[in-house]
Amino acid sequence: MVILIINLALIYWINLRPLPIQMPKIILFFLLLLPFQSIFATPCSGKKMGISHCEGSQFVCNDGSYSRSPKDCSEYFANKVSKPKRTTFTENKVTSITENRATSPFMQSPGERERSSKILKLDYPGFTIWLDCEKHGAVKFQYVAQHDSGNAKRFKRFFLDPKVPAECQQTTAEAYGMHYDRGHQVPANHLDASPDAIKATNAMPNILPQAANMNKGAWLQTEEIIECYRDIDELLVVGGALWGQNSNDYFVHTHGVKTPDAFWKVVIRGTGQDERAIAWIVPNSQAATKDNLDRYLVSVADIERITGEKLPVADYVKHEKPAVSWTIPRGCRKG
Fold first, then answer.
1. Distance in angstroms (rounded) separating the CA atoms of residues 184 and 259
2. Which of 4, 116, 242, 286 is 20 to 30 A from 307, alpha carbon to alpha carbon?
3. By C-alpha distance, which of 67, 98, 94, 68 is closest to 81?
4. How far apart are CA 22 and CA 25, in angstroms?
């Protein structure tokens, strides 16, 4: 609106002047407009495909580039939502709460954050997921990654779970397409001691659309870290999906599910004074490659603030955020 008013005023002013001096003024007019365009334009608009996440005050776009917007990314999202209503859940109960807090690009909008009253806890061999019947996707998963003692073959076929109500899961197990993979919340490789557990990881309640580069990049890197460190110590792995302001509807008509904005994961090892934890929020973006994993490190406290979950991590560990992800030990078999 501001640009339109400036436009009309300057055009009117230019038209009142003789023709010979119009051209320099038109050039001056467009030069004056340049800073206004960056101020009022939406960050990461157009070919940049929307906002992926924040890196400090900068906007990182879904095409992997940085927005030239002068706006502060953190303040931008903090101003988007105020006193959102959301719900947290235990195994068999849903409780609604309201809280005023800073938000992030990965937090759901007020409407999206109101979880369904029907969340199913599904206990599969070796892992558990919490399936939101309204979203048709898992909002949380949990498993223990134990010492690698098996080599069962991966199950090739994806399938709908016949024991789960149809209204709670996706409508088909077919591939997504559009450069999105059928992404596992719980990976098969961490449960390769049990053929039944490996098969269960291909059930669609454990699957969500993941950008191909992210699925084979940063998300795979977190899985490889777990694969290596489970031979050092038993690991508790907790994670889930985040839907929010950028969630798209690419697969609503074909699969009945929106694409999550991001995925979070917490890995916990050790006990007592030796307890350690690492956490990531990985944007569901083609830019989320292995090389960028360290950009997505957060503290466990950040995860709790964003998701509303209470994670089984010692208080003295929750606020720690490592500078880099755990290093994969030399000689580790990641396969």
1. 13
2. 286
3. 98
4. 5
Report how far residue 190's alpha carbon sits from residue 234's, in angstroms, rounded to the nearest whole number: 12
Kindly tell me if the per-residue pLDDT of 11 is higher than 70.
Answer: no
In the predicted structure, residue 154 carries a pLDDT above the cut 60: yes
Output phi, psi for 257, to 5 deg.
-140, 140
E-assigned strands of 113-211? Answer: 119-124, 127-132, 137-145, 180-184, 207-211
pLDDT at 101: 29
Average pLDDT, the chain: 79
Specify the pLDDT at position 51.
65
Distance CA 209, CA 10 (A): 49
Is residue 294 a contact partner of residue 324, using CB atoms and an 8 Å limit?
A: yes
- Is this prediction's pTM over 0.85? no
CA distances from 65 to 49, 259, 286, 304, 313 (A): 10, 21, 11, 29, 35
Angle at the Cα of 184 from the Cα atoms of 216 and 203, rounded to 5 degrees: 145
